[in-house]
């Protein structure tokens, strides 16, 4: 591999019909060289021959380990004649050329009629073979970690099936675009990862999004690839794409089909460099989790996926509550529910349940689902040493003493359950009527009333006239 050779092209044949693989090294001189090339990571590609055989191919194409190539026509016209050998009378494309040798053990089909190159236009399996050889070279470069067998499998499994009308044998026609897609592009082909911790690589160049696939981390994405992981034990999982070359989306699900997934956790950017993603979730022993890595708005590149399981993770979450009137003495009662994580690990899926006292109407509770006087508030993940406040605004017109309680929970085992609940009691007063509820006296009426009051108090009297003394 000093010259990084990926493939050998053999556009040649002996014209002999071999109806089964010619594996005898004593009669077939290609057996040992092809085997040695494969051991060195090199794929050998050979023409099946142009002898009109429908039940056999020539040598060296018949050699085990060789990618044997038949020819298809892409001409959409009738009466195609191949220098007196035969003629195809069809207007269909992707038809096996009448001259192309075929057999049950043929590997692949590729365009071979007619091919223009270096100023010549010709037809034959010798023209089809370079297409397959070039595709192999591209795949070996794009997926250097794959074995020769994996490359050939990628080449054949992604091809478009074409049936030879002469013998009913269907073989894949080369489709490099599909072959170059990531192996785990489809949910059904997700790659298994194992162990409690590890790292794996991959990429999502040419990856696609399937029908019914969710929007990972709330972004449309469009270039997703998949892994699956079975938790070897219960515990907290840290999963991230740190080291990837593009802006990633990361999601974890449970479910058996791409359109029937339940979200466990997801993240777009976790604040790390390169807009990588990171998340935590609490795994159950023996449960399978489906992991999707997508590109933000369809971005693509190389992927680094890292995971670790902490079976001893704990998080001491605590809740406290306070209450007060707004304005002081008013009829709006505001509760502040404070949740904190005393560690030592991240608390995942933190949630607060608040039971508001009866006869209190809930006016607002951002981030909470309200069902009467019961509030369910999703906090999400809470790092060790951090806290989060939920503000709940209520109102009442009744006087009395009211008790409101709150409790907090997390997916992570809590070593101290004594601080997971709290309550606060406060005495409310009946609301004073609004100014707009008092009838307004006209200004002239107020003036008359003031005059009468002055007369009654003796400050106003009629001035009588007197004679001069």
CATH topology of the largest domain: Rossmann fold
Helix content range of the residues, please?
A: 10-25%
Mean pLDDT: 88
CATH architecture of the largest domain: 3-Layer(aba) Sandwich
Spans of at least 5 consecutive residues whose pLDDT stays below 50 are 431-457, 459-469
Q: Helix/strand-derived class?
A: mainly beta
Largest sheet, in brief, is:
5 strands, mixed
The helix count comes to 5
Kindly, what is the distance between the CA atoms of the first and last residues, rounded to a whole number of angstroms?
145 Å
Assign the CATH superfamily of the largest domain. Answer: Peptidase S8/S53 domain
For the secondary structure, the number of strands is: 29
Features:
mainly beta; Rossmann fold; Jelly Rolls; Immunoglobulin-like; five-stranded mixed sheet; 5 helices; 12% helix; elongated; disordered C terminus
Task: Explain what this protein looks like in three dimensions.
The chain has five helices and 29 strands. By secondary structure, it is mainly β. The chain folds into three domains: 7-179, 3-Layer(aba) Sandwich (Rossmann fold); 187-310, Sandwich (Jelly Rolls); 315-428, Immunoglobulin-like. It is elongated, with a radius of gyration of 40 Å. Residues 431-457 and 459-469 have low confidence and may be disordered.
Question: Helices, strands, pairings?
Answer:
Elements: E1 7-10, H1 31-39, E2 43-47, E3 66-73, E4 80-81, E5 87-88, E6 95-96, E7 108-113, E8 115-117, E9 120-122, H2 125-142, H3 148-157, E10 160-163, E11 170-173, H4 176-179, E12 191-193, E13 197-203, E14 225-230, E15 235-240, E16 248-254, E17 262-267, E18 278-283, E19 288-295, E20 302-310, E21 315-326, E22 332-344, E23 347-355, E24 361-364, E25 368-371, E26 374-382, E27 387-395, E28 400-409, E29 421-428, H5 443-456
Parallel strand pairs: 1-2, 2-3, 3-7, 12-14
Antiparallel strand pairs: 3-6, 4-5, 8-9, 10-11, 13-20, 14-19, 15-18, 15-20, 16-17, 16-19, 21-22, 22-27, 23-26, 23-28, 24-27, 25-26, 28-29
Helix pairs in contact: 2-3
């Amino acid at each position: 591999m000093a010259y990084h050779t990926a493939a050998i092209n053999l556009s040649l044949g002996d014209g002999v019909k071999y109806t089964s693989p010619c594996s005898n090294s004593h009669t077939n001189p290609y057996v040992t060289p092809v085997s040695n090339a494969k051991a060195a990571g090199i794929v050998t590609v050979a023409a099946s021959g142009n002898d009109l055989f429908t039940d056999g191919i020539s040598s060296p194409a018949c050699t085990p380990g060789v990618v044997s190539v038949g020819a298809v026509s892409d001409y959409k016209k009738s009466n195609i004649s191949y220098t007196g050998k035969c003629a195809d009378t069809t207007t269909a494309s992707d038809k096996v050329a009448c001259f192309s040798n075929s057999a049950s053990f043929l590997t692949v089909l590729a365009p071979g009629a007619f091919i223009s190159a270096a100023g010549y236009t010709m037809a034959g399996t010798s023209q089809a073979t370079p297409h397959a050889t070039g595709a192999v070279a591209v795949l070996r470069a794009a997926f250097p970690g794959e074995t020769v067998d994996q490359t050939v499998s990628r080449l054949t499994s992604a091809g478009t099936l074409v049936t030879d009308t002469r013998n009913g044998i269907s073989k894949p026609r080369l489709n490099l675009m599909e072959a170059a897609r990531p192996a785990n592009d489809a949910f059904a082909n997700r790659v298994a990862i194992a162990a409690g911790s590890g790292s794996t690589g991959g990429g999502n160049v040419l990856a696609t999004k399937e029908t019914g696939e969710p929007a990972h981390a709330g972004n449309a994405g469009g270039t997703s690839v998949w892994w699956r992981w079975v938790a070897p034990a219960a515990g907290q999982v840290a999963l991230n794409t740190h080291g990837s070359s593009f802006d990633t989306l990361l999601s974890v699900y449970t479910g058996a089909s791409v359109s029937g997934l339940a979200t466990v956790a997801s993240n777009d950017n976790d604040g790390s460099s390169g807009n990588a993603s990171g998340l935590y979730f609490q795994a159950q022993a023996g449960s399978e989790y489906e992991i999707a890595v997508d590109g933000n708005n369809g971005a693509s590149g190389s992927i680094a996926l890292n995971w670790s399981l902490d079976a001893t993770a704990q998080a001491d979450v605590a809740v406290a509550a306070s209450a007060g009137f707004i304005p002081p003495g008013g009829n709006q009662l505001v509760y502040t529910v404070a949740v904190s994580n005393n560690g030592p690990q991240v608390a995942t899926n933190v949630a607060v349940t608040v039971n508001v006292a009866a006869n209190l109407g809930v006016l607002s509770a951002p981030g909470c689902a309200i069902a009467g006087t019961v509030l369910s508030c999703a906090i999400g993940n809470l790092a060790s040493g951090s806290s989060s406040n939920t503000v709940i605004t209520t109102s009442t017109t009744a006087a009395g003493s009211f008790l409101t309680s709150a409790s907090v929970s997390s997916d992570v085992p809590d070593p101290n359950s004594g601080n997971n609940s709290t309550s606060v009691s406060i005495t409310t007063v009946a609301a004073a009527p609004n100014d707009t509820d008092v009838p307004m006296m006209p200004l002239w009426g107020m003036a008359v009333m003031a005059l009468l009051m002055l007369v009654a108090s003796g400050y106003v009297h009629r001035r009588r006239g007197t004679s001069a003394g």
